[in-house]
Design brief:
With 134 residues, the chain is α+β, with helices and mostly antiparallel strands. Strands 1-2-3-4-5-7-6 form a seven-stranded mixed β-sheet, covered by helices on one side. A hairpin with a 2-residue loop joins strand 2 and strand 3. It is globular, with a radius of gyration of 15 Å. The two termini are 23 Å apart.
Length: 134
């Protein structure tokens, strides 16, 4: 498994697979090195996208793997890699969130993330906010 920053050559693949982000923001995130690409045997198998909450706390916006590579430890490795990178950049805390009806909440808890609150948008399930000291 190889983890690297997304580059311009990854734009089309990300655009086709990450439907939760506009093309303009996707281009900005690639340029800002806020997306990691995961490859295996030179094939893209997933990504992690983040931003900065309050402009100073890394917030994992999305982690995704194609179906065949889920539940095999790849997500854990990618999150640990991201946490290490964030710590090396001087950050001591990281955040993420997930909807209360999604399985991801159990994944984050297994990785040591603690529930610190949340909110509810109209017509959506409760969004759980998670925190971890790194």
């Amino acid at each position: 498994m190889n983890i690297r920053y997304a580059e311009k050559i990854d734009f089309t693949w990300l655009k086709e697979n990450d439907v939760h982000i506009s093309e303009e923001i996707l281009k900005t995130k690639i340029k800002s090195k806020e997306i990691y690409i995961v490859e295996e045997n030179n094939e893209k198998i997933g990504w992690l996208r983040y931003s900065l909450f309050w402009d100073n706390i890394p917030f994992m916006n999305m982690i995704y793997f194609v179906d065949e590579y889920r539940k095999k430890g790849n997500g854990k490795k990618l999150v640990e890699y991201w946490e290490k990178e964030m710590n090396q950049k001087g950050h001591k805390n990281v955040l993420t969130s997930t909807l209360s009806n999604e399985e991801a909440q159990h994944f984050y808890r297994k990785l040591g993330y603690k529930e610190i609150g949340g909110f509810k948008l109209l017509e959506e399930p409760f969004e759980i906010i998670f925190h971890k000291k790194i």
